[in-house]
Amino acid sequence: MRFDEAYSGNVFIKSHPSFEESKAVIYGMPMDWTVSFRPGSRFGPARIREVSIGLEEYSPYQDKELEEVKYFDAGDIPLPFGNAQRSLDMIEDYIDGLLAQGKFPLGLGGEHLVSWPVMKAMYKKYPDLAIIHFDAHTDLRDSYEGEPLSHSTPIKKVCNLIGPTNVYSFGIRSGMKEEFEWAKEVGMNLFKFEVLEPLKKVLPTLAGRPVYVTIDIDVLDPAHAPGTGTLEAGGITSKEMIDSILAIANSDINVVGADLVEVAPVYDHAEQTQVAASKFIREMLLGWVK
Fold it and tell me: What is the chain's mean pLDDT, rounded?
């Protein structure tokens, strides 16, 4: 699989022309094969890139400009439509390759199941890995209507892989009663409703550890992000998400990779979801890529 050229389409603003010289690699995972409500997140990566042209290259939050970070946008992985297992295998292979070359992977989804093969690959390189997970949903099911490959299962899968005490979920406000009970029984760090304050308490305990961060855009309230597949009222604001990204940037943890998923542009003609997502990516690049 080629790494040194974009697969297709537009690139994120200020993408560096050289893969070899770049520390971070942006890549898309255009998959929504297992969604349980509204499809469309496979179009998220491309649209996040397209609206990024409207971003200022300067972040007043961090007093940095995008040209200070070298990142290469590799485009979207050409996933086979409808074939979930093959798509997941391709994503894992791709991340294995990026990590072997010392790159910081920054993924654009796609449904949340695409985070699962990425986290598997990260764990192979970082056996003391911790996960920070922002989401409206627990994603702790074993299966959805009998299907274990579902966007409602990735966090349960990674809990089983790295141990539930190494997984930290924030902003959770939806899930089956059994999922919440399981999280409590096994010692998973699940924080309902709130994000920033519990995050600030957790970050010092993860100092020095490699951490992978996965952001489901539906952690935001639908008033701030209507363009997603499974809306949940009662979420956080865009400002709270930016503040959380900055809190991570200013902590002593070692962010080794990240993704932002579940942007479905077709449901947001005002494009506030896509614009928010692109701004989050800017702050992640400036704050997390060392």
Answer: 95
135 assigned ligand-binding residue: yes
Q: pLDDT tens-digit profile of 163-188? A: 999 999 999 999 999 999 999 999 99
The reply to whether 137 sits in an annotated binding site is: yes
Asked if residue 269 belongs to a known ligand binding site, the reply is: no
Residues 202-239 pLDDT 10s: 999 999 999 999 999 999 999 999 999 999 999 999 99
- pLDDT tens per residue, range 139-168: 999 888 888 888 989 999 999 999 999 999
Residue 7 has what pLDDT?
A: 46
How many CB atoms sit inside 10 A of residue 5's CB? 9
pLDDT digits (tens, 9 = 90+) for 197-211: 999 999 999 999 999
**142 assigned ligand-binding residue:** no
Q: Which of 276, 267, 269, 285 is nearest to 41 (CA)?
A: 267
pTM of the model: 0.95
Q: Which fold does the domain 24-288 belong to in CATH?
A: Arginase; Chain A (3.40.800)
How would you write the chain as a 3-class SS string? CCCCCCCCCCCCCCCCCCCCCCCEEEEEECCCCCCCCCCCHHHHHHHHHHHHHHCCCEECCCCEEHHHCCEEEEEECCCCCCCHHHHHHHHHHHHHHHHHCCCEEEEEECCHHHHHHHHHHHHHHCCCCEEEEECCECCCCCCECCECCCCCCHHHHHHHHHCHHHEEEEEECECCHHHHHHHHHHCCEEEECCCHHHHHHHHHHHCCCEEEEEEEHHHECCCCCCCCCCCCCCCECHHHHHHHHHHHHCCCCEEEEEEEECCCHHHCCCCHHHHHHHHHHHHHHHHHCC
Where along the chain do its domains lie?
A: 24-288
